[in-house]
Write a structure and sequence with these properties.
Elements: E1 2-9, H1 13-43, H2 50-60, H3 74-96, E2 117-122, E3 128-129, E4 134-137, E5 141-146, E6 157-162, E7 168-175, E8 187-192, E9 196-200, E10 205-207, H4 211-214, H5 216-227, H6 234-268, E11 271-275, H7 279-282, H8 288-294, H9 296-310, E12 313-317, E13 343-345, E14 351-353, H10 354-367, E15 389-391
Parallel strand pairs: 8-11, 11-12
Antiparallel strand pairs: 1-5, 1-7, 2-6, 3-4, 4-5, 6-7, 8-9, 9-10, 12-15, 13-14
Length: 398
């Protein structure tokens, strides 16, 4: 399995200037490739191939207008060109329906005003970690790294990024072996929510941390200070970084909390069943802020790669499965229930907690979901349909 290992960088002022130059050159190459393909489309001509764009890039470096492209590593420029070509391939695949997921728009130009910038070095660039523990990058130098853990293997590439808060990171792509955990008899179904982030089929409930909500007052204060600063002033830049650091702190805290919860669930259960929620749709409702704050998609993604690496099984139950309306005792499907109904009684006499009952049904669906087919939405009083369950594929990179 391929994973990314990210570390903080502490570049010197000279190295920051060199990185800014590399970011700018990569952005220009990317935009030139987009402009060339747009011009071909408007002229009704065939799109220039990847090879033709690469040849044009080589020629541009010999012209006075683009001579400064030769000041940075050629690998950085070629990788920016590859990103532009990959963006168009994904766009075309999305238009034809061969690419899964939501529809993608046409690639857009990158702006120099974007606070987040990135460049990528492959093995061809001959980057390496020095015996002193620094990251040697061509054209940049030996950059100090904050090593929080050792790299498990030789990296195949490294991506250097700077975020809106001015933090530099190096993200290494490495191959890591699977580490199967000893089998355990426990299995769990998970019902994700907002009041309780996760309700487990064993009856335990995990309260939502509401990290962004708790930091809302501090964020509002920082944003108000930014709005009062004069545009273009140094104080405005200071205030902008303060806002960016506040957002970074929220995101990092949420990611850390999700990592700890997902690791605990994977370690303690042999099978994990979770509902395949339509997060993008829920994020367009009045609950959008709470949905984004919860981070359900990130959590399920963590469960997926950790389960694969640990030899566990993760099953996603289809979003149309009536987990809330289905009685976990007798299997009857009741009527749709508004959100304020937290407990309900089935005709068989069983009294259910709404979320615990849903988690039990999700677990039952996950246990028998190997031979099932997708279903459409069901109405009250109809028989239980086949479960829409999909097994996470093995061997895919996280």
């Amino acid at each position: 399995m391929q994973l990314r290992y990210a570390y903080r960088l502490n570049p010197t002022p000279a190295q920051r200037r060199a990185l800014a130059r590399a970011f700018g050159c990569a952005r220009v190459v990317f935009n030139d490739a987009i402009a060339a393909r747009r011009a071909a489309h408007e002229a009704g001509a065939p799109f220039p191939t990847d090879g033709a764009l690469s040849k044009a890039l080589t020629g541009a470096k010999r012209t006075p207008q683009r001579a400064w492209l030769g000041e940075v590593s050629a690998v950085v420029l070629q990788q920016a060109l590859a990103d532009a070509c990959a963006a168009y391939r994904n766009f075309f695949a999305s238009c034809t329906g061969t690419r899964k997921g939501r529809k993608l728009g046409a690639p857009r130009f990158r702006s120099r005003k974007d606070r987040a910038q990135s460049i990528r070095f492959t093995k061809a660039a001959r980057f390496r970690v020095t015996p002193a523990g620094r990251l040697r990058l061509p054209g940049i130098g030996d950059v100090p790294v904050r090593w929080s853990r050792e790299l498990p293997s030789e990296p195949s590439s490294v991506t250097v990024t700077v975020d809106a808060a001015g933090r530099y990171h190096a993200s290494f792509v490495v191959d890591v072996p699977d580490v199967p955990l000893p089998p355990v008899p426990r299995e769990v179904g998970i019902d994700l929510g907002l009041t309780h982030f996760a309700v487990l089929s064993d009856g335990s409930k995990v309260d939502a941390p509401r990290i962004a909500r708790k930091a809302q007052a501090k964020l509002a204060k920082a944003q108000k200070e930014l709005a009062r600063r004069q545009k273009g002033s140094k104080n405005r830049e200071k205030s902008r970084r303060k806002v960016a650091r506040a957002h970074v702190r929220v995101a990092s805290t949420r990611r850390d909390w999700l990592h700890k919860l997902s690791t605990m669930i994977v370690q303690e259960n042999q099978l994990v069943a979770v509902e395949d929620l339509a997060v993008s749709g829920l994020a367009r409702t009045s609950l959008a802020r709470s949905v984004h704050d919860a981070g359900w998609s990130t959590f399920v993604g963590m469960l997926a790669y950790k389960a694969q690496r640990s030899g566990r099984t993760l099953v996603k139950v289809g979003r149309w499965f009536p987990s809330t309306r289905l009685c976990s005792s007798c299997g009857a499907i009741g009527e749709a229930k508004p959100l304020h109904v937290r407990e309900w009684t089935c005709g068989c006499g069983a009294v259910h907690d709404r979320d615990i009952n849903a988690a039990k049904n999700i677990l039952a669906a996950g246990r028998g979901g190997q031979q099932t087919t997708p279903v459409e939405p069901v109405s009250a009083g109809t028989p239980v349909p086949q479960l829409a369950v999909k097994q996470e594929p093995t061997g895919s990179a996280a």
